[in-house]
Structures are given as C-alpha cells and as structure tokens.
Amino acid sequence: MTHIKVALVQFFIPHYRIPLFARLGQNPVLDLRVFHSPVPQGIGFKEESPGKEFKNTVVGSRWLAGKRLVWQDALCALDGLRAGDVLVINGNPRMLHNYPLTLRARRRGIGVLWWGIGFMPGSSWINTQLRRRIMKSADCLLLYSDIEADEFRKFGFIASRVFGANNTIDQSDIQAARAKWPHNRLSAFIREHQLENRKIILYCTRLIKERRLDWVISALKLLVSKDPAYLLVVIGDGSEKHRFQECAESLGVTSSIRWMGSIYDQEQLAPWYLTASSMPFPTQVGLHIFHAFGYGLPIVLSDNLACHSSELAAFSPGINGLYYRDGDIASLAETIDTIASNESLRARLSHEAFRTVSEVFTLEHMCDKFSQAILESSRVALARMKRIKCH
Fold it and tell me: Using CB atoms within 10 A of its CB, is residue 28 exposed (0-12), middle (13-18) or buried (19+)?
C-alpha cells in the first residue's frame, strides 16, 4: 500500500484538536506528523501537549511586529518529503513561515493543502487579500464549512479542489460526562445548589470585552424584573471579569448571578449544561456551539451574520436555537425568555441541537473530508510535476 507522508504545520495544538489529529494518524494511507510549538502564554488556551496519540515534533516560534506576526521554525517539516507527499498549512496569513514553506513544497512537487477559515470576522482588507493570495498558491483548500466551500467555488476556485470540513469537536468526553449524570444524580445536584424552579441561563467562555457578557447581564436585569426565577451562571475567567462584576452590581443583579470561575473537567461542567435552558452568544460564536449542542442546549445568537465564525453553519434558526436582534438588549432578553418559558419549544430545540452534532457535524465526517483533501492535494501535485516535465 502506498503511503502519503503528511506534514501538518500548526502554530500550537489546542486540546480540542488532539482527537482530530489522532484519528487522522490512524488512517493507514497517511503517514501524519504534526509540527507545532508550545501554547503561548496569555492567549486563553488550555496547555495540553499531545502524547503518543499521533506523531508530532515540537518546534520553536516567536512573535514579531508586536505580536501581530508569527515565525515558526517549521521549515524542517519538508525534510524527508518527496513528490506526492503533502504539506498542510494553517491558513492564517500572519504565519510568515507559510510563505517559504509553500514555495519550497511546490518546487519539489509536494502537495500544499490550505486549511482554515475562509471568512475571518473582523479581518482587515489587507489580511483578506493575503489570505486569498496564499489560497491561490495551494493545490487544494480545506475550509471550515460546506457553506464556505460553496462560496469559494463561486469565487473561481476549482470545485473539485475545494473541500468543506464542517469544523467540529470530538463529542466522546461530553457524552461520557452526560452519562454520568442520570436523573437521580442531576436532581440531587439541583437540590444541593438550590436550583429548584430556577430558569438558568448559562454563559461559558472567556470573559473578554468582545464576548459582551455585559449585554447578557443587562438582559438579565430585564428578565428578573419580570421573573425573579432567572439565574445567570457564568463559567470562565478573563481580563474583564472584574468589570463585568461591577456591571452586575451597578444594575442590581448580583444576587441573580453565580460566578463559577474556570471549569475544565467535563463531569463538573455537565450538570450546568444539563440544567440550563439556553446559552446566549451576544456576538461571535465559534466552537462553543458544539459544546452546547453536545448537551442538547439551545443557543441564542446575534442576527449579525458577519460577526460569526464559520461554525455558524451548524446553526439553524428555529431548529436548534433562535436569533436575537444584534445589540438590542430587549430582544436578547425576550429571546432568552421565549426558550425558557416554552417547554415544548425548548425540548424541540434541544433535540435538534443534539442531532446536529451526533449526525451532521461529527468528527468522523471532518476526518473523512480532511483525508479526501489530502489525497486530492497529492494527486494535483503529481499532475503538476508531470506537466512541468513534459514541457
């Protein structure tokens, strides 16, 4: 059997990517090695170095231009690769090492697979143009969703060389945690934490300005004025925590909020997800959507589609969650209340939320698309080299 060597260059490996790379590493056709640097301090990602789940090499890296650019000592990723093997690069145009890597790989007949977000929220015009430029130098594109893939085919990229991964996370830890909370244990948790007859809103992400927890707190003030049963549970930490707590105090809703701090263990997270009625995302939504859906938790999203990452593709308004009018606090409160106060609606949204991650946005599907994109990159590179030799 012919093996394709695959060098995947990743700035660092977030913990949620380990199952993906482990599964790819089990593909008998691919000989995968991931080149990565340690997780930089202060960027909010959990440090979790891979073990023997897949072959990996740690390389150095450094910030440049006031942390606006990155150079990774990853040129060694091409060592031992030959024509028909594949280089997978992160699509971020700020990764300066991608440029010489791509140029050297193409000269040697090594396939180049560009992997990343096609439409980056808030990206500058220059970054967008650089992103498109490096995309055009790749043999194939692996975008984060089928929706993005369709859009880039319309931009003129060759259809057979554009793939949608339907970016997601491994659900096994989440489902294992859910199984540890049967009805009797969950009922005991509710009694222990005095959650009987409470309408729980869950907010679980980093506490930074851009995520606009202050909008949720403002919506909470409207909700508790209507029904004191509302309780906001905040899981996470961040640079803006103190400011958000001051916001809650100034609005007089401190007693209706529980600040839980950072929780990483799924078994400890599970009961909060399982007792909540919804999870609001006032601005951008990303991979957190799959965490919520894994517990069957409906979400509330801004209807400003331009602010979201490609994971928005997993959201179906009225099916697994609801939109609110962007920046409208009254609309946010009303939408949260609609889900919390309508048991049949909440049950239907919950069922479809779980179905989204158990049947559509699955790790198996993502790995299949990744493998297909690698194989096509290899084929395109070999065909390219053949044409060059013929001339």
Answer: exposed
Q: Give residue 123's pLDDT.
A: 64
Mean pLDDT for the stretch of residues 344-367: 96
d(Cα 385, Cα 184) in Å, to the nearest integer? 64
Can you name the CATH fold of 4-168+362-385?
A: Rossmann fold (3.40.50)
Residue 7 CA to residue 79 CA, distance in Å, equals 9
| Rounded Cα gap, residues 116 and 95, in angstroms | 12
The C-alpha atoms of residue 343 and residue 220 are separated, in whole angstroms, by: 20
Q: Record the tokens describing residue 216, joined without a space.
A: 């949720």
Q: What is the CA radius of gyration of the chain?
A: 23
Question: How far, in Å, CA of 154 to CA of 284, rounded?
Answer: 25
CB 70 within 8 A of CB 40: no
Query: With 0-12 CB in 10 A as exposed, 13-18 as middle and 19+ as buried, what is 286?
Result: middle
Contact yes or no for 15/41 (Cβ under 8 A): no
Q: Which of 50, 46, 52 is nearest to 26 (CA)?
A: 52
Q: What percent of the chain has pLDDT over 90?
A: 76
Find out whether 381 and 110 touch, Cβ atoms under 8 Å.
Answer: yes
Contact 141, 152 (CB under 8 A): yes
Provide the pLDDT for residue 98. 94
Q: Which CATH class is domain 172-360?
A: alpha beta
Q: Are 363 and 292 in contact (CB under 8 A)?
A: no
Query: What pTM was computed for the model?
Result: 0.88
CATH 3.40.50.2000 domain residues, the chain: 4-168+362-385, 172-360
| Closest of 89, 98, 44, 46 to residue 71, by C-alpha | 98
For 307, which DSSP code?
Answer: G
Task: Say whether 184 sits in a helix, a strand or coil.
Answer: helix
Q: How many residues does the chain have?
A: 391
Contact 248, 215 (CB under 8 A): no
Is 241:207 a contact under the CB 8 Å cutoff? yes
**Of 78, 62, 63, 100, the residue nearest 8 (C-alpha):** 78
Q: Which residues of 187-225 are buried (b: 16+ CB within 10 A; e: fewer)?
A: eebbeebebeebbbbbbbbbbbeebbbbbbbbbbbbbbe
- Tell me the residue type at 328: D
User: Do residues 306 and 327 make contact, with C-beta atoms less than 8 angstroms apart?
Assistant: no
